[in-house]
Design brief:
Shape: elongated
InterPro entries: ARM-like, ARM-type_fold, PUM-HD, Pumilio_RNA-bd_rpt
Helix content: 55-70%
Number of strands: 0
Main location: cytoplasm
Keywords: Cytoplasm, Repeat, RNA-binding, Translation regulation
Number of helices: 23
Structural class: mainly alpha
GO molecular function, one term: mRNA binding
Subcellular location: Cytoplasm
């Protein structure tokens, strides 16, 4: 099948000789330095030139840095072919944060190509760097784009990684809470997605109780279903580990399912970890009712659990008398 991605490496590299660049901004009135664009591409994208590039830009004046930024970003293809390269991405990031006048070029390029940038393995780090070094007004515009596209990014192979980085970095309370709410309110959709589940797991690691409780509420009634799946079981286990009311919600989900379903879950490849942790974490006297509720449902099947992935569950059941 033909490659339809306009920013594929092969398509863009072949197009380099044909690129035509828009005039530099009017503020750059003097003749730009004599740097060939193909030379600049090679210089920025080769691993052996990374130290030299860092040294070069450290001695350039603002006018020259602005010319470089303008040349890099005036054509979307040229910008993307460098940003999508591992070393090209790092080179662009080195230019960012040196001057607000330079940053404006990169900001405009990122916003123009937002989803292309955010869903690329290496280009996404250019956007992440921008959210760390750009002025507040530019960062807020980028945050708005993140909120609008959060679910799309969360379900993309590289977008989910970029989104997790942004969630970790976000220190603006308004945008942080907005983004966490999007994840929590769509927890079921994301938990069932191959990439979205990583975002839910990441948010749970932040230990933001309000968000964690919202995730638990939105997954209520679905914990058994999720526990049969590899990554879904990780999410349910993390909710159990939170303790208190969040743990109770999960255990109540387990208790609400039919006895045969709970037995199947306890014997399954991933669900056995969920059931074992539920038993282990409810042994405390304050949650004894939940613990014995699970024991009563599982005890008739302990002989089946001994020769299955649920052998650790059987060990717990064998260690105690059958409750009345």
């Amino acid at each position: 099948m033909a490659n339809t991605n306009p920013f594929s490496m092969s398509t863009m590299f072949n197009a380099l000789p044909e690129l035509r660049f828009a005039p530099a901004r009017e503020i750059i009135n003097e003749e730009p330095p004599a740097m060939d664009l193909r030379w600049m591409f090679n210089f920025m994208t080769r691993s052996e030139d990374v130290p030299r590039f860092k040294e070069l830009i450290s001695v350039l004046d603002t006018r020259t840095l602005m010319w470089m930024a303008s040349s890099l970003t005036s054509d979307s293809n040229y910008f993307m072919v460098i940003a999508r390269n591992q070393y090209g991405s790092k080179s662009i990031q080195r230019l960012m944060g040196m001057s607000d006048d330079v940053d404006v070029f990169f900001f405009e390029a990122i916003m123009r190509l937002f989803l292309y940038v955010m869903t690329d393995k290496y280009a996404s780090y250019v956007a992440i760097k921008g959210m760390r070094v750009f002025q507040q007004d530019k960062r807020e515009l980028m945050y708005e784009h993140i909120l609008q596209n959060a679910l799309y990014l969360a379900r993309d192979q590289h977008g989910c990684i970029a989104l997790n980085e942004i969630i970790t970095d976000l220190d603006d309370p308004y945008y942080r809470n907005q983004l966490l709410d999007i994840v929590a309110n769509n927890a079921l959709l994301l938990s069932n997605d191959a990439y979205g589940n990583f975002v839910v797991q990441h948010v749970l690691k932040l230990r933001d109780f309000r968000c964690t409780r919202n995730i638990a509420d939105n997954l209520c009634g679905h914990c058994v279903e999720l526990s049969f799946k590899k990554y879904g079981s990780y999410i349910v286990e993390r909710l159990l580990e939170v303790g208190d009311s969040v743990m109770e919600l999960v255990v109540m989900d387990l208790l609400a399912c039919k006895r045969e379903m709970l037995m199947r879950l306890a014997r399954s490849e991933y669900g056995n970890f969920v059931v074992y942790n539920a038993l282990d974490l409810t042994k405390d006297i304050l949650t004894a009712d939940l613990f014995y509720g699970l024991v009563r449902k599982l005890m008739p099947y302990r002989h089946l659990l001994r020769r299955s992935p649920g052998s650790k569950i059987a060990a717990i059941l064998d260690s105690m008398p059958v409750p009345n």
